[in-house]
Fold each of these.
Amino acid sequence: MFYESTRGGLGSITSAEAIMRGIAPDGGLFVPETRVRLTPAQIEQLVNMSYQERAEAILKHYIDDYTEEEIKESINSAYSEKKFGCREIAPVYRLNDNISILELWHGPTCAFKDMALQILPHLLVKAVKKTGETGEMVILAATSGDTGKAALEGFRDVDGTRIIVFFPQDGVSEVQKLQMITQEGRNVNSIAVEGNFDDAQTGVKEIFTDRELSEEMEKNGFKFSSANSINWGRLVPQIVYYFSAYADLVGRGEIKLGDKVNFVVPTGNFGNILAAYYAMEMGLPVNRLICASNENNVLTDFINTGTYNRKRDFKKTLSPSMDILISSNLERLLYEVTGHNSKMVAGWMEKLSRTGEYTVDEDTKKKISKIFWADYSNDSETLKTIECIYNENNYVIDTHTAVGIDVYDKYVISTGDFTKTVIVSTASPFKFNHSVVRALFGEEEVKGKSEFELLDILSQKCGIPIPNGLQGLDRKEIRHNKVCRKSEMKDQVKSILSI
Ligand SMILES: *Cc1c(COP(=O)(O)O)cnc(C)c1O
């Protein structure tokens, strides 16, 4: 399998090179040049496999320049029962006859980002070796909260790598911030940026495409790569759990092989749901992909009207990991549905960066709305959904997952479609405990309490244990306390690398 840029500037590179580069030199994203198809028999074989075996069965098609040994080693280092606290890695919880919940937050940092960021460092280090690269890899990441910690944890003390994470100073929760500023490891840095996630993400993209800096880096033996979902190495591991969930439903007799299901995905940067799209293109029987947003509903509008318009106020919501107005991975979807038309895609992206909006042609719009259905949930609907699911099902969900369930309810009302549905649950309720406790037990219960007291309260009241990764966070030493402006991000990087 070879990869090419969505903007046409580079093609026919191996997966190792795509993973190492992160983003294409023309500012585009790497995508597979050809389509992978699994037969129904191959999907059936997944039913009796472990998560690790399923991962191998999917990944080997996309990263076929890695040896079987290299793939196995990466998978086994990433997805261990020890790290995920459960054998299934990505368990499917049956909420009722119609709805199952795909729990993607059992990893070390309690959000779905671990599914990709536990394996990415292994793929990247092997990529460096395979391509004969000699420099030290410098991983840059912008984070709306969850990627940062997951990337720091994934790359900590990995030889031949350094990692620098930028997070919006006031855009992350107390738990998320502490997770990042207390990070241990000899090769890790986290820096607060004055601004929102989009500022951090744009800043990182600018650093990546800065020719002069990249030459200077090379002279000093450094090479940039990305831990954001613009990196194909983050996307490809996410395809696995869609197949895994489907195989679990078949295995339990909830559906028959070949039956279609819906997936509901709480969406920000469009990475998670794009992996679902690739799974569908590979032959996974999918009826509809439901794109759930919060009040930063730029994707809802895009999918419903064909116009992407980021010129609107950025809202801070109770689902902060989805507070995003520029969904990078949409570019990959556009490339796929236009039949790999890099000219069109580059044109839209240029228009977006110049004017803040673009409109796709009627044909592209139709193709997208045939597959995707989109709506959004505001904060009060999100809180109500958390309460409702707990009262009716005795099951505790976080705010992002609640956005998904609320949007799914809207979908059912609007379409009358009762196809079996999998809701993708992207974070542990403990990670956003302030909102969860408030939703379940009222405003009084959270008043004047820190997120750390609330961990205990949530645990005691609901009878569920606090995840390992969140215990004792408030007693850890603060190791990173830098704050910078967006315009200073490049200098921060240079100063960390002493160049
Ligand atoms: C990152 C994140 C999302 C959004 O995922 P994308 O791939 O960016 O669309 C949703 N929920 C949580 C908890 C996240 O951390």
Amino acid sequence: MATSDGNAVFVLLLLCTCFVTTTLACDTSGAKFGYVGSVGPAHWGSLNPNFTRCSKGKNQSPINIKTSEVVYNPKLEPLLRNYTATNATLVDNIVNVELRYEDPAGTVSINGKKYSLKQMHWHSPSEHTINGHRFPLELHMVHKDEHGNVTVVAFLYRFGRPDPFFFQIQDKLFELYAEGCRADKGGEVSAGVVSMMSLRQHAHMYYRYAGSLTTPPCTENVVWIILAKVREMTPQQAVALMAPLEASYRHNSRPTQRTNGRTVQLYHRFWSNEETSSP
Ligand SMILES: *[C@@H]1O[C@H](CO)[C@@H](O)[C@H](O)[C@H]1NC(C)=O
Ligand SMILES: *[C@@H]1O[C@H](CO)[C@@H](O)[C@H](O)[C@H]1NC(C)=O
Ligand SMILES: *[C@@H]1O[C@H](CO)[C@@H](O)[C@H](O)[C@H]1NC(C)=O
Ligand SMILES: *[C@@H]1O[C@H](CO)[C@@H](O)[C@H](O)[C@H]1NC(C)=O
């Protein structure tokens, strides 16, 4: 099969060149925070006066979602997402790999308000956990309204079949990776037109809660929408998404935070009156 052969070559290339980068000490001094040691999550709050929310905030993310404690809310609406295929840029942010949209890429509607898609990025392993279970990967689609209020739509991934979305950016990931140690200068490559079509599926059930950005400055009042349906990708795809990053940032997951009494609400399409009463 042509695709799996192509995949195998890609992985082989990654593995060979990975070896080279891991032996080079990349300069990541441009990063304002990290995931290990003195710049790790436990110290974020004191790294910069603007980061105090990371240690003092009471509504922080990520959290562990206990499915026995989620509250079904029949008033929650279906996830209304209207994305358009648009030009994107793949960016190495040192701390993660991001797909950034310069042009309007579409919106998600929450309580009748529209939030525009700005960027998406990946964390490995997952930041949110379900009943204490951590997944290999988590994708965050970051949306903002005109006041800067943030809504993140998150997807959890387990290892399994290939993720079709990934194929649109795999060559660009490799290009970014091949740039090597330019991370400290903010490497980026044009990714061309990227379609969000495959990410619109499986929204029958989602969790929703009020949290924060999972990276400094840990800004709060972020609406989190976490799709309950766990998606799949191959281990090779997960490796490729982290490969452009310097070794210490390939594990870029913030530990779960206290809920402090916050409830996680559940939307379930088949339980809502609206849907069950329609033919
Ligand atoms: C804190 O944030 C403000 C506004 O973004 C910025 O001007 C300032 O330089 C930041 N302070 C530090 C210490 O980074
Ligand atoms: C989706 O967005 C496009 C362009 O942004 C717009 O023309 C269209 O009406 C929107 N569709 C819905 C169902 O909101
Ligand atoms: C994407 O960018 C190319 C080159 O700048 C341009 O020709 C094309 O029209 C753009 N496509 C979209 C959907 O914006
Ligand atoms: C959005 O931001 C505005 C201005 O900061 C604020 O007044 C409003 O409450 C926010 N809305 C939501 C839904 O968070």
